[in-house]
Design brief:
Elements lengths: L17 H22 L3 H19 L3 H35 L1 H10 L7 H16 L2 H19 L3 H18 L4 H10 L3 H28 L10 H13 L8 H11 L4 H18 L5 H10 L8 H7 L4 H23 L4 H10 L3 H19 L2 H18 L4 H11 L11 H10 L3 H4 L5 H15 L17
Helix pairs in contact: 1-2, 2-15, 3-8, 3-12, 3-13, 3-15, 4-5, 4-10, 5-6, 5-7, 5-9, 6-7, 6-10, 6-14, 6-20, 7-9, 8-15, 8-18, 8-19, 9-19, 9-22, 11-12, 12-13, 16-18, 17-18, 17-19, 17-22, 18-19, 19-22
Length: 477
């Protein structure tokens, strides 16, 4: 029996049909789209409501509470390894910040700026920051705002600058091991985070490179203001240099993480080892008291550089900060467990199995469903949740690894949300950068180029990995 699927209960007195199946799936999309998109109701309570309503349908189909609860618990237990990693990621971010590792890398990343190639360097710098912090919102709200000030000083068109900054900021949301969206995607798909990241590079690198190439051509053909000030960038770098001690030893935590990931060793112990190294560096190099260095792994880093912009950027991490993602995942798994235990996914999957007879159709259907859900809801978490839960059994049935699914969802779902004017992400980016979504969207090339490349690999079969292990949360899956 496929371990990724929960067997429908034998207690069912009525066999669900396609109409029954579509009610909770479409209803949940509508509930979250209106509740979260229009009224900013928390996704967690909306998922609880969706689970309760789906449980009511399950009772009508003949299930008792014990069977419904069993479905929830089975689904949650299958997702527990991924949720544990999400929690440890919070400790990893907090410890790397306290050690000075992330501030040092940001400092040198911002040093890449070039007035003539502003779009290229802006995209690269925000890409580096988002990879290190795992947050597109935090990157745009801090470094992005600083770069917009530089863009005005250089005479760079605001739409071009904003598009390049958003594209860079969402690189981390897709492939950073610290990003909430990336970790949520692998949790729902039940795959290994590092396998997911490596697999994503096949489409991420060409998509990101396409954007950089366009920015380079545009930048080289555009005149910049002579002697324009880069004061905002210098101010951030100065604050980082004054507050942190930089040393080659600070590269140890990422080196440990990368080495263990490259050797396909278990993820969780490797992350904890990296946390331990970072805590030691925080004490020995930065002079952080040992108790505070340990507490940072739980409560997050609380900087006091004297520059509000830098403090907002570095106020990240801690296991507590990741409980939001973990709680959403917990509610999502409970919802999925009821769906599967009541047999409500069966009719939809039967229809999908009939249509998705090859990888071309499967990847196309995945991309199409992501686009529909993100346009309906404007929410990244929902765009990850619904298509991933729906298509995961189809990928398993076709013998394809789950990382193919999480990659397709990342290319067509996660990075596309800031291009939707009515999404929370779009509203935030537009407000922070002072540029309308529809103005910067054409220039956020990375945010839509990935769709082409994920369709390309789907149509050619290139890099469509076969499923190796039943438990794909293990390294090397």
């Amino acid at each position: 029996m496929d371990p990724g699927v929960i067997t429908p209960s034998a207690e069912l007195k009525r066999q669900p049909n396609l109409g029954h199946s579509l009610v909770p799936i479409a209803g949940t999309a509508l509930l979250i789209g209106v509740g979260f998109g229009c009224y900013q109701v928390k996704v967690e309570i909306l998922l609880v409501i969706a689970t309760l309503l789906t449980s009511g349908l399950a009772v009508w189909l003949g299930l008792g509470w014990k069977e419904i609860q069993a479905g929830m618990m089975q689904s949650i237990m299958k997702g527990m390894p991924a949720m544990l990693i999400v929690v440890v990621v919070g400790a990893l971010i907090g410890s790397w910040l306290a050690a000075g590792t992330i501030p040092m890398l940001i400092y040198y990343g911002l040093g890449l700026i070039s007035p003539k190639l502003f779009l290229v360097t802006a995209c690269l710098a925000t890409g580096i920051v988002s990879m290190l912090t795992g947050t597109g919102y935090g990157t745009i709200g801090t470094v992005g705002v600083a770069f917009m000030g530089i863009a005005h000083g250089l005479g760079v068109p605001p739409a071009q600058a904003a598009g390049a900054l958003v594209a860079g900021a969402y690189l981390g949301d897709k492939v950073s091991p610290f990003a909430a969206n990336a970790n949520f995607a692998v949790a729902i798909a039940r795959v290994n985070i590092y396998d997911h990241i490596r697999h994503c590079l096949w489409t991420t690198v060409p998509a990101f490179a396409t954007g950089l190439a366009v920015y380079a051509v545009v930048g080289l053909s555009t005149d910049v203001v002579a002697g324009a000030s880069l004061a905002a960038d210098d101010q951030v770098r100065q604050a980082l240099a004054q507050h942190f001690v930089f040393s080659p030893w600070l590269l140890l935590p990422p080196a440990v993480t990368l080495l263990l990931a490259a050797r396909n060793l278990p993820v969780l112990p490797g992350m904890l080892l990296s946390v331990a190294v970072a805590v030691a560096l925080a004490i020995l190099v930065q002079g952080v008291p040992w108790a505070e260095a340990l507490n940072v792994t739980v409560t997050g880093f609380k900087p006091a550089t004297g520059l509000p912009m830098v403090d907002r950027l570095l106020a990240q991490g801690g296991m507590q900060a990741m409980m939001h993602v973990t709680l959403i995942a917990l509610c999502a798994f409970a919802f999925s467990g009821v769906l599967q235990k009541a047999g409500l996914l069966g009719p939809v999957l039967k229809l999908l199995f009939q249509f998705t007879t090859n990888t071309r159709r499967l990847v196309s259907a995945t991309v199409g469903s992501c686009l529909v859900v993100e346009l309906m809801t404007g929410a990244a978490f929902v765009t990850i949740l619904l298509p991933t839960e729906l298509f995961a059994p189809v990928y398993r049935q076709m013998g394809l690894a789950g990382k193919n699914l999480s990659r397709a969802v990342g290319d067509s779902g996660i990075v596309g949300v800031p291009l939707i004017p009515w999404s929370i992400a779009g509203a935030f980016m537009s407000s922070a950068l002072g540029v309308p979504v529809l103005a910067y969207a054409p220039w956020a090339i990375f945010c839509y180029a990935g769709i082409f490349f994920t369709l390309l690999v789907g149509f050619t079969g290139f890099t469509m990995a076969a499923r190796k292990h039943d438990d794909e949360t293990q390294p090397g899956s």
